[in-house]
């Protein structure tokens, strides 16, 4: 009699009205049906129950779940369970879903659930059209212009890339005529009769200005490669003689001893003074030394040997 009353309630529940959702109070896993409480009361204040409501075998509900109801046709008896509700008394942890993604996360990161949003990262373009999300790589385009060699290094900021066969405009290598090509850090060194100076990004290469020398004179060029160097004139170099002191840096010229038969000209290139020393007891205009070239970048002294009482005295007959 009790079963008949329950069946009648279930029939009346289906016949009298349609319900959109109900709560599961019993599950028959063999017949894949449920007994549902639709939340209504009959005239005797009893809960209105729906018996033998089928559900999909892939998504079996649990007792206490709130499920959605769907009708296959106009008949109230065509009701079926479509799925659990993610709200109210039906917690997410009680839903068993087969063949679906339950969470989303990056490798090693916490699992995300609910409304998960995807954000575009560096080099990635993220677009959405209807139900389709497209991830595309933001590939840079090839540049069409090459950059010349710059005075300072820079990482650049453009997205365009250079092709593997790109070239840069600039000095490829440096070499003397017929010499080996040099690259990398190349250093210029001053040679005989040449001075090299650098100021900022400017390198100046200079040779001493030409000095007219009579054809019968001897010319000796000496480059002081370090400060305070001394050059000793040899007595075998017979005057008349012109000594060119190149790149003078507090240099000293030692005069030869003995009888000298002609004049001597010493010309200095540089801002430092040049000291001239006579040999032994010889003198220069009665002095034991002579300094010239203090006030200008070049200077000269003209000496004429004269013998007095077996003592050689160099007379200064020109100074500049």
Give a written overview of the molecule:
Residues 85-94 have low confidence and may be disordered. The protein has one helix at residues 2-16, and strands spanning 21-28, 33-41, 47-54, 66-71, 79-84, 124-129, 132-137, 195-199, 202-206, 218-223, 230-232, 241-246, 252-254, 264-269, 274-277, 283-284, 290-292, 298-308, 311-319. Strand 18 (298-308) and strand 19 (311-319) form a beta hairpin. It has a 6-stranded mixed β-sheet, with no helix packed on it. Strands 3-2-1-4-5 form a 5-stranded antiparallel β-sheet. The protein has 320 residues and is mostly beta strands.
Largest sheet: 6 strands, mixed
Average pLDDT, all residues: 78
Outline the low-pLDDT stretches.
85-94
Number of E-state strands: 19
What tags apply to this protein structure?
mainly beta, rod-shaped, 6-stranded mixed beta sheet, 320 residues, 5-stranded antiparallel beta sheet
Helix and strand arrangement:
Layout: H1 2-16, E1 21-28, E2 33-41, E3 47-54, E4 66-71, E5 79-84, E6 124-129, E7 132-137, E8 195-199, E9 202-206, E10 218-223, E11 230-232, E12 241-246, E13 252-254, E14 264-269, E15 274-277, E16 283-284, E17 290-292, E18 298-308, E19 311-319
Parallel strand pairs: 10-12, 11-13, 12-14, 13-15, 16-19
Antiparallel strand pairs: 1-2, 1-4, 2-3, 4-5, 6-7, 8-9, 14-18, 15-17, 18-19
């Amino acid at each position: 009699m009790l079963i008949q009353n329950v069946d009648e309630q279930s029939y009346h529940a289906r016949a009298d009205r349609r319900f959109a959702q109900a709560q599961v109070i019993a599950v028959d896993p063999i017949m894949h049906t449920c007994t549902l409480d639709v939340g209504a009361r009959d005239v005797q204040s009893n809960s209105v129950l729906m018996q033998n409501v089928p559900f999909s075998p892939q998504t079996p509900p649990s007792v206490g779940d709130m499920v959605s109801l769907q009708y296959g046709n106009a008949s109230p008896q065509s009701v079926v369970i479509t799925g659990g509700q993610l709200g109210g008394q039906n917690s997410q942890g009680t839903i068993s879903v087969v063949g679906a993604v339950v969470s989303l996360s990056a490798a090693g990161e916490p699992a995300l659930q609910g409304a998960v949003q995807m954000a575009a990262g560096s080099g990635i373009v993220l677009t959405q059209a209807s139900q389709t999300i497209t991830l595309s790589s933001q590939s840079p385009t090839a540049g069409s212009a090459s950059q010349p060699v710059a005075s300072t290094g820079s990482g650049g900021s453009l997205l365009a890339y250079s092709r593997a066969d790109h070239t840069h405009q600039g000095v490829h290598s440096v070499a003397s005529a017929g010499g080996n090509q040099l690259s990398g850090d190349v250093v210029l060194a001053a040679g005989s009769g040449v001075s090299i100076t650098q100021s900022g990004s400017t390198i100046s290469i200079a040779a001493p200005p030409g000095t007219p020398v009579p054809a019968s004179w001897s010319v000796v060029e000496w480059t002081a490669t370090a400060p305070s160097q001394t050059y000793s004139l040899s007595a075998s170099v017979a005057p008349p003689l012109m000594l060119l002191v190149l790149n003078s840096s507090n240099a000293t010229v030692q005069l030869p001893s003995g009888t000298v038969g002609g004049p001597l000209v010493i010309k200095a290139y540089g801002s430092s003074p040049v000291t001239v020393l006579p040999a032994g007891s010889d003198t220069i205009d009665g002095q034991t030394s002579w300094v010239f070239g203090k006030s200008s970048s070049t200077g000269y002294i003209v000496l004429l040997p004269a013998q007095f009482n077996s003592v050689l005295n160099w007379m200064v007959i020109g100074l500049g």
